[in-house]
Queue: 2 jobs
Job 1
Amino acid sequence: MRTRTAALSAVLLGALAVPSAATARTSAAPPGVDAPPMGWNSRALACSVSETAVRRAADALADGPLAAAGYRYVIVDGCWTAAGRDASGGLVADPARFPSGIRALADYVHGKGLKLGLGLSAGTKACAGGGAGAYRNEAADGALLRSWGVDYLKYDWCSIPTADFPGKNVQQIAQILYPAMRQALGDGIAFAMNNEEGSTVPWLWGRQVATTWRTNVVTKPLTDSYAHMVDVWETNMLRHEYAGPGSWNDPDLLQAGLGKMTEREYRAQFSLWAIGASPLILQADPAKAPAAIVANPKVIAVNQDRLGVQSRYARTDGWYHALVKPLENGDSAVVLFNESDRAATIAVTAAKLKLPRAPHYRVEDLWTGEVAATQGDLAAYVPAHGAVMYRVATRDAGGDRAAPLVTLETDPAATLGEDRLTTLTAGREGEIVTRLVNTGGTKKLTGAEIALTLPDGWRARPVTPAASPEKLAAGEAFTVTWAVTPPAGVTAGRYEIGAKASFDGRAEVTSSAAALVAQAP
């Protein structure tokens, strides 16, 4: 006679096994979810979340620029379930935090033109707040969520009774429990598998089950830290082959607006998440999320592109990365990301990007709106911790109309890979170099001039001519050496030095780099 746990395992295995290759869907996205989900998640509120706070977030999302940009989901991450269930065994909303219940909250969110998401655990308890989990109640809980009007479920992996599955590893248990809830929800609800530690390796099998799956291999969520963000992104890039239209890798939430990273770092994260076909789920209060970053329509269009493909490396050497993502209309999105602590030129060729052959390419900077042309080479001087994002087109390239793509370097390192900043001494002249390169090469540059933009009180003089008498052909460079003097009493620390170049009597480009200032002994 079999034991009770063995019988439970057999029932779940027989009825809710992973779909076979013959019956599996090619996409786990429900109808209407044909691009990575966009929205807001209540994680930053933790268990201080309440229906009042969620309604306030929905108001800010709907009434500001975010809804127009495509943000739809309002997700209650956790702490919404009561510790127990009702008399019939159904989930109950925490009466203190959500006194009106989830159905009323869903109606409110839907009335704003938005969608409601909830977090729930596949185990016996919620990950936070002590609420109930869905274990052994998948069918009933899935039906209840549908009746409430829930549009998105973030399904966590906490308090899993592994002893109920003798002889099975964590992945095998997940391949029983996650499909059970997917089946119970039906096809109308987006399903996000959220295993923070990666022990269930969902990227290997989740495409037949989930809309998204978490790719972290750490035991805690992404923090508002540049170093942690880069680690999570690099891990996510290793999973790119498993994602595709309708089912996407999820490297975790967006941090923009939380305040511990710089604007440049938040823009880099948004660029990486957008080209990576990752969910764009905000964590900051929607009213405080920087719209100039998270509501950029051209960057979002890359993320929401219907081809649904995640970016791949066109080239990388550990610090300097060139990423490319094909788009539905034949264009390509490109991100040049400088992971290092010093500004650097990142270059890549059309061949590495696998662009179709063309005499010229149209290159649009999606953050500045500037348009240029190139014969094939693509390069930018990217600030430390920064990213440049392009949309590259072969149609209507406009090689004769747009200025050639140029690269303006401010204080480039003598050796690629040099991560230490140039150090200047207060009150003394130091040397800074600027360089303008005709990267695009669609025509010669004429009348090239370079000027410096410095912090208040600084002085600079060109040691070599700041205007070029020569025309710059494809790939040629114009270099200016400067004697730069920080004020004698300036505080030691990090300062930004900028450069501005003009050519052809009209075109203008800028760049900047950081330098350290030390006090003379």
Job 2
Amino acid sequence: MKLETIDISIFIIYILGILVLGLYASRFNSKTKKGYFLAGDKLPWWMIGGSIIAANISSHHLVGAMGVAYSRGFVAITLEWAAILIGFNALLWVFLPYYLRNGFYTIPEYLQVRYGSLTRAVYAILILFTYIFVEIGAVLFLGALSLYALFDIPIIYSILALATLTGVYTIIGGLRAVVWTEMVQLVVLVVGGVVLTFATINEAGGIQTVIDSTKDWKMIYPADDPDFPWTMYLGGLLCISVFYCATNQFIVQRILAAKNEWHGRMGVIFGNYLKFLVPLIITVPALVAPLFLPDLDKPDLLFATLVEQLLPKGLIGLVMAGLISAIMSHISGAINSCTTILTVDIYLEYFNKKASDSQAIRFGKRSGIVIIMLGIMSSVLLISYSDKPVFLYLMNLYGLFTPGIATMFIMGVFWKRTTTSGALAAGIITIPLSLLIEFLLPDMPFFNRTGIVFWTCMLVCFVVSLLTKPKPDVELKGLIWNKESLKLPESERHLYKGIRNPFYWWLFITIVVLFFYVRYF
């Protein structure tokens, strides 16, 4: 497809604008560890919630999730809305107080305080694999796939360009540059998504087609479904959601940078509202697109096809800027999380405990370059992947790495008898057990496989903990969930009065999501 001058202009202006904004933001608070890795602990609630969703929603949603919705229907949205009911609730009501009250830079720091340094290293290794192969590699590939389908740009060139542009301001500016650019990218993403949604609905016959499609909306599928069995709620989806939303440096780093607990909680809840709305913008076009695109061979190309066929000049540049927004915000967040973990949990812990702030930041920047290179390599490996929508492939990868991580956190925070040996056992068996089940039962839905591995990790952790010596109660003070955990800090109680109380805002969005689950059961 040949781009018009106006589309090219919009596209170039946007890319340059983001680059300039990221570099400008890097001027603030990037001279210290706290400034570089946590934006100086000064993020307000609206920036926290907005950046969480901007980092979360990426090309694997605009491209991958849209492809899943086209081929499988409304059930695709359950992977997003389940986060509101499961993962973000775990973060909001269980883990958030521990993270903020202990002043952690990274999520693995909780594991060290709870279990010891070895569990911290196991988490760091597992999470870095996840970020490189899923959060960076797959997102780069999916974005490049759309650019290739639309403009015939070689995939490898797009991968290199996207990785380089994003890496520049992320490595130079740290978390502050990431969050500032994410807020702009979220607006562009939403505007571009809304434009494409209305264009698709109009082509399909108007709003009545959406209303008519609701008769086929279904959120719970039979147990023998190959991708979305209802049994996924018993373990697989539970495990992935808790990991991704509540114990994932990529998401939680924004909470760690909150001004205080109230801003942290309101940020999560604001993120819930965006998490409800943005997937609708992505899913609805895919549900009505079959009315005029009934036989699309590759569902992952639906986004590119809609842009090419439906949008006039000018709007193409805007929507593609939305796609690039999604890619860049996601990659920048992943790179920043990787560099934070490598610096705080590996370099400062094992190689240079007395490093100055400038030494730590220098190491973080250098490690960021390595992470980008590894992400590019992993994205190249995906070029040959075409069996099913790539979004499902990403969930499959999450299922390989996450059961042990979720187990370490859940058992650690809810059961004081959990020992270091029990947590390590769960983390170590995760990948081998996942690969073994996939080899022996290749047709098993990955959600079921993940659930089996998750509950096996929980059982192993339980048994090993019973056979080993736990920490004394005095060393676990402030680390185990109890009613004291829900008490608000004295200095913040005045913030929770009346309409400012996060509970009311949380209750409303929770009821709305539950209504959809009941209505389209």
